[in-house]
Structures are given as C-alpha cells and as structure tokens.
Amino acid sequence: MADIKKLAEELGKLTVLEAAELVKTLEEEWGVSAAAPVAVAAVAGGNGGAAAEAAEEKTEFTVIIKDAGPKKIEVIKAIRQVTNLGLVEAKALAEAAGSKVLEQVGKEAAMDAKSKLEAAGAVVELA
Questions:
Q1: Going edge to edge, which strands form the sheet with 123-126?
Q2: Strand, coil or helix: 63
Q3: How confident is the model at residue 1 (pLDDT cuts 50, 70, 90)?
Q4: In the chain, what are the domain boundaries?
Q5: How far apart, in whole angstroms, are the C-alpha atoms of residue 37 and residue 57?
Q6: 59-126, which class in CATH?
Q7: For 101, which DSSP code?
Q8: pLDDT at 53
Q9: 90-97 contacts, C-beta under 8 A, 24 or more apart
C-alpha cells in the first residue's frame, strides 16, 4: 500500500502544468472526468449574489487559439513549450481555429500561456 503522506507531499511539489497533465493522464487511464458536474453548479447558482461573486473570482481558465497568425511555426513552438505536446499534436492545435491549448488551469498559467502564444503571433482568448 502506498504511503499516503509521502504521495501527498510529492503531489504538492507539482507545477500547475504538471498537475494538469496528471489529471489528463488519470482521466484517460481510468475513463473518468475531473470536471465538476453541471447540476452541482446549477444548484450553487441559486443564490444570485453568490453566483455573481463566483463569476468575479474565476480560478480556472481555458486557453483557446482563435488564429495562429502568420508565424505558425513560432506558434507551434510556443504550444509545445506550454503544453509538453509532441510536434504533430501541437501542429494540429495551431492549424485548427478554436483549439483549446490548456483547459482548467490557474490564472497565472493561463496568462503565461497567453502571453507566450501572443508573442509568437497567435490570437488567443481566455475562457
């Protein structure tokens, strides 16, 4: 049996991007989703003031490429840098408008990815 405290310690050392990759891997391996059920969000939204406050304090963002722009190779390099994807996967994201580069990441990671992608020439949106 795994030492739970040691495992928790190791998980605490992960960067945001590493944690996101871990979640993605576990979802694929076990066939589950880490996303909160929509019904729970709807129930929580019953209080108008609390819903408005929650909307202001958004903590998870999705980085979406709207357009790769004229420097597609630079954008592909930037995608690989922020996601650790392979060349083929990064190229596919750069070529498809509306591609989600990162999903459910913290504000700092999302802003970092956005700035790197925009510096490479992409048009990026945070959702």
A1: 99-105, 61-67, 123-126
A2: strand
A3: low
A4: 4-55, 59-126
A5: 19
A6: alpha beta
A7: E
A8: 53
A9: 93/65, 94/65, 94/68, 94/122, 95/68, 97/65, 97/66, 97/67
pLDDT tens per residue across span 57-81: 678 888 888 888 888 889 889 888 8
Q: Please, which pLDDT band fits residue 35 given cuts at 50, 70 and 90?
A: low
The two three-digit tokens of residue 63, written as one number: 């980085």
Do 102 and 126 contact (CB within 8 A), yes or no?
Answer: no
Backbone angles phi, psi at 61, to 5 degrees: -130, 155
* C-beta separation of 102 from 83 below 8 A: yes
Do 78 and 94 contact (CB within 8 A), yes or no? no
* Gyration radius from the chain CA atoms: 17
Q: What angle do CA 4, 85, 111 make, to 5 degrees?
A: 80
